[in-house]
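Exercise 7.
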Amino acid sequence: MPYLTTLDDWREAIPKVLDVEFSELLSAYEQYPRCHHQQYRARLWECAGEPDAIADPNGEVVFDIDMDCAANGVIGPLGSRIVATRRLWFPEEMRTGVFIRGEDGEDAELDFNVQACAACSEHPHLYADTGLTTVFNFSPGMYELVVYAGSDFSESLSVHLEPF
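Solution. The predicted structure, written as tokens, is:
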């Protein structure tokens, strides 16, 4: 989607990225409770549907993200960043490390957070990559992994969910 967008650009992009018609999104958005942080309102559609990965309390789970502006499921560029989201299911309470590695197998130089899928009024947990730790205590349920990279970033990433 171009940096300067029109309403027609949004009408075309929304079904491709979120798999929902633009009019449905607007209707549901109007009914969603006001949030303290506007970006949380996006949880309405980003958390809907089947999980992209299911965490395993007994072993590592690995999945890939094609982090490129032209890849399906990647939004952007938005300003100077591109964004990818994936739904994660945690079947039980578990302490899990979230590690994102680049094609070279090393930690990728990017930012991410993991947000519980819940209404803003429920004050959903937000776990962020602080640079110090990426090991978190998750309650059972659906979460959204949000990965941010520079708009010129183009790499296949592997996301590792490792129980601790």
